């Protein structure tokens, strides 16, 4: 059945009535709109970036000079543990989830995620787990065993306080949020793409989101198992890691890194996917090697599971295993090389480049990526790793990777997509300053760390003696950190300026090719009044059809309640109409109940655990109670 | 920190600075305690580039070779970016949203990805991997009859035991230059990692596991080794001096180190030992030849001959030792050594006694 | 405008779907995948400890008894059958068969849990005796928790089944509960093989 274009009058008003959330306190807490949730993710993750950054700045202050004593060793340990934990778990991954939440439905031409309520739940439990772990500072017992939390230092004998319980329980809580979010992304990308968007036409950011989500689903259980073991060992006296009871501390290391190394790719791949969306826009041409980038993304996610033991070369592993993991760790850099050369080729083959702030950040990202990549190959060489592991060389390497391949694309993405979210452009002039200050700051902070490591400076030391050859390097790094902080402040100023006085963005300020630019900025709550059809990889760059469609099939209109289109997995053929659930307070309620339950576990009160456990089940029951119009999710 | 050091000041002039004979480069003045001149106690900065062994030398060469390759790759990428941008510098100022190139994409562009992104890395990585294998291949097991030394990591100091426990010492490891020794690495509590940057890569000390490494110094000197795995608040102050000396000097040291201490002859020394025994120092520390037989803390039998104290974090001078005994937690917050309250005379007596334990 | 690339017959698309078309089914599949990984990590931990620690208890001829696990296995496998039977029923619109199938499954699962409780209370050592006991109790205990969760889901489905909520076209809940139950049973087979049988075999 088709609907004549003339009969679409009043469609926007109808959809608006069906999809809009009331502007009230109830609406604020009950909304399941992926765009609102996405923006909340972005803001919250940015707050965690600032918290983790503050911790880093305090550490740099302590290390500026030898024999620094601003903080006691115990406080310094809490700072570096919380810096790592915050940045890796509460900033890097949620920040990308934020962009994913906002962009995935828009990029695939859908009206929401597959499970909007679970999406809201993911967000609430992410925030609450972050609050949970930061409450530890108020309790004077912030985690202090490193983000990697090696036993036996973190077991009850050597860390008797609540510090590591805060760590383990907050991460278990966050793991629930992340797993649910990952499943949501996978199902959304598999089943809700616009008609005509076959897998081969899918935007590259969808490939990276899909890869990281599947990798999360496979990798997170290893962390969950490790954390459950740790809590059972700390609280109940189980003996998985106890060498005197038939266990071994190496079990923790294996479980942690089987999770930990894929996680590195999980927090950089979505960012490379975003870069693959942005490069073509500023090179004014389709990306080179689309298929290769998709393949490289998937294979990086896959290989990421085969390299975990390169974190353990110094543990006395058999030489044959180290050789295998060394080779695998080098091989994993090949797909990254393919991605880099695809971007380089895109720059090379472009007839013209648009030097926006986004493009500058992308170029910076490329350079930092290459430095982080080659230093990674150096650490994959087993004997050299015996020298540089656990030194500042590795600190330099991992920060080039995470600042280079996560933070720089993220800032680029803000300059690129914030206008879509707010309807206003950021200031390009200030943006240029922002880029150069941040680029200088990042290199000044992290490049000298290579030398400090090669010159023998170990990681995770709260102070160091003078005259070992590290003094001026550390001073340089601290100055660099100050410059970097200024760069971040410039970004914040730019965002605030843009919200107040930014030039209106229009639908497609960059002349980009993907579907999110076909709707208004900011998009309506239903994203698209008529669900778009996709005929190529760059739908908005298709030659405009000579005459507008005279009539539209009804599956692209769907204006009888919250509905969106379900399509087939491989070819994106229309398959079914999906009923989308309405606003609900249950996601918030169940997240709060879970927070209460984890608090009860923290306080080790059996009565409270039972009560809060029943509360969680009750909330789940309330959520799932069949509704008259059978809305799934 | 300043006030603690001021507290130590009266003692600083009491004792001559103790230097190991091998540490000849020290010309710094410890009368200026504002910055601890620990560097003076080592012949070389603890850098992987200031190599003192053939192994470390090979590792440094491997690192330099990989750095050269890495730098080349980096500049290739930089070159492509800048030339790529430069050659379009005078592109027409069309509206920013105009699309210059329409599909279909030139197929030859994919050769960038396959050549630069696939073939090039595979070739480079194969080279790096061969380099890695050849460096690993150069590692030889210790020849039979090599000295075996047991190193036990503690929070936050190193216990060093020579065969049959004939020598038990702490935070110092003597070995004959040019000869491989086998280190057996164990931990008494949490995971530590043994790292002498000038000599060899790291090996972890893991509870319940016996790791081994071969250590060999090919030039004589005093090197610094440090703990490289985070092991708690004082992870930063857990280092050890490695003294690589001639076979004769090593033998001589071993002979002295094996011998128990001589019971004190002078009154003042007897008073010092008395303080040691009555102020519960002896419940944690041993001094072979006396009744002190504690096993929690470092063995102090030849304490006076060591260059540093408190896990290599303080010079072993009368001043620092007195400060350390009076309030260990101020100098090394979190240390397991408790403060032992004692009057000035007792403190002086025990410090003098310990410093005389050569 | 009709698009050549898009196949559309013109008939209205279905709204309520079951099976592989439903997003809810996809969600359950991925939940099972991540749970399977969790158990894979536990099993891997068991073998890692067994392979790397000499004092690991299972090596010393300490086999867990099979007297209870064998009937427990029979119970779970049977319950998978009854679940399948009930689900087949509702696919043809047979509500009675669904109700009976769900109820039988519930009873069999509940008896399994009771037997597991008996096994736990008769264990010689507690979970804190050694790493072996720790991994044994954690793996079986976590599986027991999953059975309990499966029973709660079963109750939830029954509640709707007895109110006549399901039909041949509309029974996604039953499909998901059933999928989860089969998954939990499959995990049990792996646990049986690993913890109970493997020390006897090699």
Structure description:
The complex is a heterotrimer of chains A (633), B (358) and C (202). Chain A is an all-alpha fold and 633 residues long. Helices cover 63% and strands 3% of the residues of chain A. The longest helix of chain A is centred in the first third of the chain and has 36 residues, at 73-108. Chain A starts with a strand and ends in a 9-residue tail after the last helix. Mean pLDDT of chain A is 93; it is low at 629-633. With 358 residues, chain B is an alpha+beta fold. Chain B has eight helices and twelve strands. Chain B has helices at 2-12, 54-86, 110-137, 247-258, 267-278, 318-326, 328-331, 344-355; strands at residues 148-154, 157-161, 168-170, 172-176, 181-187, 192-196, 200-205, 211-215, 221-227, 239-245, 308-309, 314-315. Chain B is elongated, with a radius of gyration of 28 Å. Chain B starts with a helix and ends with a helix. Chain C is mainly α and 202 residues long. Chain C contains five helices and no strands. The relative contact order of chain C is 0.16. At the A-B interface, α4, α10, α11, α12 and α13 of A face α2, α3, β7 and β9 of B.
Supply the key terms.
heterotrimer; A: 633 residues; two-stranded antiparallel sheet; C: 202 residues; mainly alpha; 5 helices; 0% strand
SSE layout:
The complex is a heterotrimer of chains A (633), B (358) and C (202).
Chain A: E1 2-4, H1 11-19, H2 25-30, H3 34-63, H4 73-108, H5 116-138, H6 163-191, H7 204-236, H8 249-266, H9 269-283, H10 290-303, H11 319-331, H12 333-349, H13 357-380, H14 382-388, H15 392-422, H16 428-454, H17 471-501, E2 551-553, E3 563-567, E4 574-579, H18 586-603, H19 606-624
Antiparallel strand pairs in A: 1-2, 3-4
Chain B: H1 2-12, H2 54-86, H3 110-137, E1 148-154, E2 157-161, E3 168-170, E4 172-176, E5 181-187, E6 192-196, E7 200-205, E8 211-215, E9 221-227, E10 239-245, H4 247-258, H5 267-278, E11 308-309, E12 314-315, H6 318-326, H7 328-331, H8 344-355
Parallel strand pairs in B: 1-5, 4-10
Antiparallel strand pairs in B: 1-2, 2-3, 5-8, 6-7, 6-9, 9-10, 11-12
Chain C: H1 23-52, H2 69-91, H3 95-121, H4 131-162, H5 172-201
């Amino acid at each position: 059945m088709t609907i004549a274009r003339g009969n679409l009058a009043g469609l926007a008003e109808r959809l608006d009535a069906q999809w809009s959330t009331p502007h009230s306190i109830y609406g604020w807490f009950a909304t399941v709109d992926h765009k609102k949730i996405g923006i909340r993710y972005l803001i919250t993750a940015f707050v965690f970036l600032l918290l983790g950054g503050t911790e880093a700045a305090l550490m740099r202050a302590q290390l500026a000079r030898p024999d620094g004593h601003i903080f006691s060793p115990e406080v310094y340990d809490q700072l570096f543990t919380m810096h790592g934990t915050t940045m890796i778990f509460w900033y890097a991954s949620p920040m990308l989830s934020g962009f994913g939440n906002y962009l995935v439905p828009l990029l695939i031409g859908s009206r929401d995620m597959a499970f909007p309520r679970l999406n809201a739940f993911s967000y609430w439990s992410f925030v609450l787990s972050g609050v949970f772990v930061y409450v530890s500072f108020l309790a004077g017992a912030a985690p202090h065993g490193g983000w990697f939390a090696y036993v036996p230092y973190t077991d009850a004998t050597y860390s008797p306080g609540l510090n590591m319980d805060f760590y383990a329980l907050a991460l278990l809580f966050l793991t629930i949020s992340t797993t649910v979010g990952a499943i949501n992304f996978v199902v959304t990308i598999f089943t809700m793409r616009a008609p005509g968007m076959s897998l081969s036409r899918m935007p590259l950011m969808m490939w990276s989101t899909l890869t990281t989500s599947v990798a999360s689903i496979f990798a997170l259980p290893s962390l969950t198992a490790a954390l459950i073991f740790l809590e059972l060992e700390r609280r109940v006296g189980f003996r998985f890691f106890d060498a005197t009871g038939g266990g071994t501390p190496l079990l923790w290391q294996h479980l942690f890194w089987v999770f930990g190394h894929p996680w590195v790719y999980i927090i950089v791949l979505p960012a490379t996917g975003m870069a693959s969306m942005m490069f073509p826009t500023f090179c004014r041409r389709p990306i080179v090697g689309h298929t290769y980038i998709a393949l490289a993304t998937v294979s990086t996610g896959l290989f990421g599971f085969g390299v975990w033991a390169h974190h353990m070369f110094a543990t006395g592993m058999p030489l044959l295993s180290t050789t295998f993991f060394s080779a695998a760790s080098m091989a994993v850099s090949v797909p990254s090389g393919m991605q880099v050369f695809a971007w380089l080729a895109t720059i090379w083959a472009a007839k013209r480049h648009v030097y926006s702030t986004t493009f500058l950040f992308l170029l910076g990202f490329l350079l930092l990526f290459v430095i982080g990549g080659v230093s990674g190959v150096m650490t994959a060489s087993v004997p050299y790793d015996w020298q540089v592991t656990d030194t500042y060389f590795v600190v330099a390497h991992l920060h080039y990777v995470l600042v280079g391949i996560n933070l720089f694309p993220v800032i680029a993405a803000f300059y690129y997509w914030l206008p879509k979210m707010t309807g206003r452009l950021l200031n390009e002039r200030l943006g240029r300053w922002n880029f150069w200050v941040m680029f200088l700051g990042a290199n000044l902070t992290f490049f000298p760390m290579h030398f400090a490591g090669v010159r023998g400076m170990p990681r995770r030391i709260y102070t160091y003696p003078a005259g070992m050859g590290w003094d001026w390097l550390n001073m340089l790094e601290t100055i660099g950190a100050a410059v970097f902080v200024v760069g971040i402040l410039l970004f914040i100023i730019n965002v605030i300026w843009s919200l107040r006085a930014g030039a209106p963005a229009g639908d497609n300020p960059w002349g980009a090719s993907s579907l999110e630019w076909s709707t208004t900025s900011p998009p309506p709550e239903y994203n698209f009044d008529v669900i778009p059809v996709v005929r190529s990889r760059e739908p908005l760059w298709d030659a405009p059809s000579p005459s507008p469609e005279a009539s539209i099939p009804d599956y692209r209109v769907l204006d009888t309640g919250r509905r969106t289109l379900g399509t087939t997995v491989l070819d994106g053929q229309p398959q079914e109409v999906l009923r989308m659930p309405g606003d609900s307070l249950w996601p918030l309620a169940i997240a709060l109940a879970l927070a209460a339950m984890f608090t009860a576990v923290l306080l080790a009160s059996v009565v409270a655990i039972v009560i809060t456990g029943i509360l969680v089940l009750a909330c789940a029951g309330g959520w799932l109670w069949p509704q008259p119009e059978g809305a799934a999710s | 920190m300043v006030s603690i050091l001021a507290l130590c000041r009266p003692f600083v002039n009491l004792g001559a600075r103790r230097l190991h004979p091998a540490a000849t480069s020290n010309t710094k003045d410890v009368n200026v305690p504002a910055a601890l001149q620990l560097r003076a106690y080592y012949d070389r900065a603890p850098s992987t580039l200031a190599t003192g062994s053939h192994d470390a030398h090979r590792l440094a060469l491997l690192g330099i070779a990989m750095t050269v390759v890495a730098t080349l790759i980096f500049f290739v990428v930089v070159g492509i970016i800048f030339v790529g941008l430069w050659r379009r510098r005078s592109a027409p100022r069309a509206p920013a949203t105009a699309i210059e190139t329409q599909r279909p994409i030139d197929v030859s562009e994919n050769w960038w990805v396959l050549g630069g992104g696939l073939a090039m890395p595979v070739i480079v990585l194969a080279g790096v991997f061969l380099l890695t294998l050849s460096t690993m291949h150069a590692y030889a097991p210790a020849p039979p009859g090599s000295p075996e030394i047991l190193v036990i990591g503690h929070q936050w100091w190193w216990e060093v035991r020579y065969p049959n426990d004939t020598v038990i010492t702490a935070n110092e490891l003597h070995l004959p230059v040019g000869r491989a020794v086998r280190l057996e690495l164990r931990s008494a509590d949490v995971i530590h990692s043994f790292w002498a940057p000038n000599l060899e890569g790291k090996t972890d000390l893991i509870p319940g596991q016996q790791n081994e490494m071969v250590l060999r110094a090919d030039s004589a000197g005093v090197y610094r080794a440090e703990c490289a795995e985070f092991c708690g608040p004082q992870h930063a102050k857990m280092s050890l001096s490695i003294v690589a000396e001639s076979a004769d000097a090593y033998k001589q040291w071993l002979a002295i180190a094996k011998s128990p201490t001589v019971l004190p002859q002078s009154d003042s020394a007897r008073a010092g030992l008395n303080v040691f025994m009555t102020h519960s120092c002896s419940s944690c520390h041993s001094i072979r030849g006396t009744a002190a037989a504690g096993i929690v803390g470092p063995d102090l039998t030849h304490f006076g001959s060591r260059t540093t104290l408190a896990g290599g974090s303080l010079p072993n001078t009368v001043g620092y030792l007195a400060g350390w005994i009076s309030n260990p937690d101020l100098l090394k917050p979190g240390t397991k050594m408790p403060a032992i309250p004692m009057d000035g005379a007792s403190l002086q007596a025990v410090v003098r006694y310990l410093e005389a334990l050569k | 405008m009709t698009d050549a690339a898009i196949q559309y017959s013109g008939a209205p698309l279905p709204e309520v779907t079951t099976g592989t078309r439903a997003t809810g089914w996809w969600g359950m599949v991925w939940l099972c995948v991540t749970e399977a990984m969790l158990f894979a990590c536990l099993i891997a931990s068991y073998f890692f400890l067994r392979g790397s620690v000499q004092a690991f208890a299972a090596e010393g001829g300490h086999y867990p008894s099979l007297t209870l696990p064998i009937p427990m296995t029979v119970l779970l496998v049977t319950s998978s059958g009854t679940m399948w039977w009930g689900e087949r029923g509702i696919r043809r619109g047979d509500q009675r068969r669904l109700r009976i199938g769900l109820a039988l499954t519930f009873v069999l699962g509940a008896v399994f849990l009771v037997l597991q409780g008996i096994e736990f209370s008769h264990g010689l050592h507690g979970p804190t005796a050694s790493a072996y006991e720790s991994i044994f109790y954690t793996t079986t205990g976590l599986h027991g928790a999953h059975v309990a969760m499966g029973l709660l889901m079963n109750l939830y489905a029954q509640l709707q089944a007895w109110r006549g909520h399901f039909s041949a076209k509309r029974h996604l809940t039953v499909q998901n509960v059933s999928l989860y139950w089969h998954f939990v049973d499959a995990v049990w087979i792996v646990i049986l093989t690993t913890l109970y049988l493997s020390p006897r075999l090699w």
